[in-house]
Amino acid sequence: MRITLRTLAGLAIAAVIAAAGFVYSGIYDVSALDQHLAPTYHVLDFAMKRAVKVRAGGIVAPPLDDPALIDRGRARFQEHCAQCHGAPGVAPQPFALGLTPAPSNLAYTGAEWTESEIYWTVRYGLKMTGMPAWEFRLPDDELWAVVAFVKRLPALSPEAYRALGVAPVAKMDSTGDAPDSERGRFAIQQYACVTCHTIPGIVGANAPVGPPLAKFALRRFIAGHLQNTPENVAAFLQAPQQVKPGGAMPDLQVSERDARDMAAWLATLR
Questions:
Q1: Do 144 and 64 touch, CB atoms closer than 8 A?
Q2: Tens of pLDDT along 78-136?
């Protein structure tokens, strides 16, 4: 029996209506207490792994066997990763145990994933998980240091990991790169600005707690009294409570580079 284009179109419309009805009904349980359906989980997991493999395919890892590099990676791992992923003989923090899906065991990741795949994931993060894009929190050499340490995790016993001790927290140096407005748009997302502001082109909560950022570049003043210049915007983003004591804008620990890039992107909103 020949299927006509009209029949296919009808089936497609029926499928869209059924999907819309399912979503609108609220039947699907979105609570973190209830795990994904098994087919949902396995499809998302497969899609994630394929996406990472494809995007990491052109990345060439630098040499990662330098002990100093690995030790720097240990410091960043202890500072930023172990809280969610745990470590050999060390449990994740209680808040991470309730994440859905649960953060992966990085000893297994270090054994099964390539250096390039780990780097891509650490740098760009993963949607619909708790994994952030560390590109906006660590410079590139530190990202590779984390990769170097993660690749060593499978060989570390709990005793060997404890023997390493706790590494000191290092202060990240700022960069002298010119402001990058496109990177600033991603930084605006990564610092969750949309949880307080409505922002053109940024999808999210769009909660009007703070002023909307539409036509930001046309404003004469920011923080009530500062001229709206990229330099002043960057200074405000880095230290909002110093610029406007008692204001509602919290200190998000925005780095110098990110602040300059975010200011450059805000300057494009006309």
A1: yes
A2: 999 999 999 999 999 988 888 888 899 999 999 999 999 999 999 999 988 889 999 98
Q: Return the structure tokens found at 63.
A: 């040499």
* H-state helical runs in the chain: 5-25, 38-56, 67-76, 82-85, 94-97, 106-112, 115-124, 140-152, 158-163, 181-190, 230-238, 240-243, 256-266
Please name which of 197, 200, 230 lies closest in space to residue 214, comparing C-alpha atoms.
200
Strand 221-222, strand 226-227: pairing: antiparallel
Q: Categorize the per-residue pLDDT at 177 as very low, low, confident or very high, splitting at 50, 70 and 90.
A: confident
- Return the residue matching tokens 């923090």: 93
For the cut 70, the answer to whether the pLDDT of residue 176 exceeds it is: no
Letter for the amino acid at 31?
S
pTM: 0.77
- CA 231 to each of CA 42, 45, 226, 237: distance values in angstroms, whole numbers, following the listed order: 47, 43, 10, 10
Helical spans, DSSP H, in 77-203: 82-85, 94-97, 106-112, 115-124, 140-152, 158-163, 181-190
pLDDT at 169: 59
> At 8, which amino acid appears?
L
28 phi/psi in degrees, rounded to 5: -70, 130
- Distance, CA of 137 to CA of 254 (rounded, Å): 9
Question: For residue 75, what are the CA distances in angstroms to 35, 69, 148?
Answer: 33, 10, 12
Residue count of the chain = 270
